[in-house]
Amino acid sequence: MAAGNGGNGCASVHREKFKPLGGPDGGNGGNGGDVLLVVDPNVHTLLDFHFRPHATAGSGKQGQGANRAGAAGETLELKVPDGTVVLSETGDVLADLIGAGTTFVAAQGGRGGLGNAALASRARKAPGFALLGEPGETRSLVLELRSVADVGLVGFPSAGKSSLISVLSAAKPKIADYPFTTLVPNLGVVTAGETVFTMADVPGLIPGASQGRGLGLDFLRHIERCAVLVHVVDCATYEPGRDPLSDVDALEAELDRYTPGLGGELAERPRVVVLNKIDVPEAAELAELVKPDFEARGLPVFEVSTASRKGLRELSYALAAVVEKYRAEQPRPEAERIVLRPRAVDEADYTVEPDPEEPGAFIVRGSRPERWVRQTNFANDEAVGYLADRLNRLGVEEDLARQGAQPGCPVTIGDMTFDWEPSTPGVATYFASRGTDVRLEDHSRSTAAQRKEARRVRRAGTAGPDEVGDPELDDE
Question: Please, which of 30, 108, 189, 338 could form a disulfide with 60 given CB 3.0 to 4.6 Å?
């Protein structure tokens, strides 16, 4: 994602008949547009980003004469579904977007450069330069959608999770009479009395899912937000070596190995066991056999059948009670307080370090020096002199001299490396033609003390004898 670049400032002088000294009137450049991620309830997938992975905001326009500022770049808003997690390239979580209207600045637009009208001062009455616009921020982000659900259904493939969510809610997932696994999570809204909660079926997990086997890592993250985990057990399976107890043990082992990226422990979430497909006689007998074992572990057990809808009402009300208890235990969200922490006026905000790769060289790091370098047009000598003044006022030259920097040593600021030449404070009060800086040229201008002495000599030469005095009479 790339934000818009800031527009360059304009260097212009007002020209009008009978006004030879109209003064600078160059306008500022416009700011570049930001790239924003905004949660939209009407968006449900991140599929658009798969086909259009690159997004660029509008750039600011250049300033013009007559104090006309450039137009700001258009901000680009990208709609994302609720529950989107923004990750950096290294996997660090940058934002967890939950709730309609939640906004995250994915890329910051560049600042527009100041025109010479804004740069005019008592020392520079008509600057012959303007500042360049800053480039917009460019970032590579990873977007993941993690379902926002209160109840998560976990189980082996073909355990009946999709069938269960289809009969408890209005969701219409794909259901067939042959073994297969769901490829995308399904969300459904369940109403039990006065409680309304959401339910998600996590696509079939298998042993080794926490290490990336099958589709486990792709969909285990969808249970991170769930208030309760429901083990859906297929009691009518004919696969050898499988039984309800071993299935739950295998899934619990995978949940223990999985580390949630959003924090929290899955072991602390309440569990519910659902023994499914009891409409089959053999499955009903197996459910009656293993139910006491699950209850001995302290797990609530429900025997259901999605075909005959037996036990579904009791299950929905039990899940609603667990969800209500979980919601009551959560701390109430407090209104976000905006805290302003202004920086100290004398804060350096930069560092001067020796260059480890080149002896005698130095590197200056800091947001302000690096920004000033990006805004400087190095083809203009006066702009270079203005940069030198800013660095001198910030204290960079004093720190370089304190660390033993010699005139002519390489100094790197941002992407620019130049030979350091100490500037003399106060020289910037005089400039020759526009766009040039006398400090970069050889000149022989006399000092103030020399001009004062010359003026005293001239006055002495034009004075009368009585005013100046006769040396011979003084000797007498």
Answer: 30
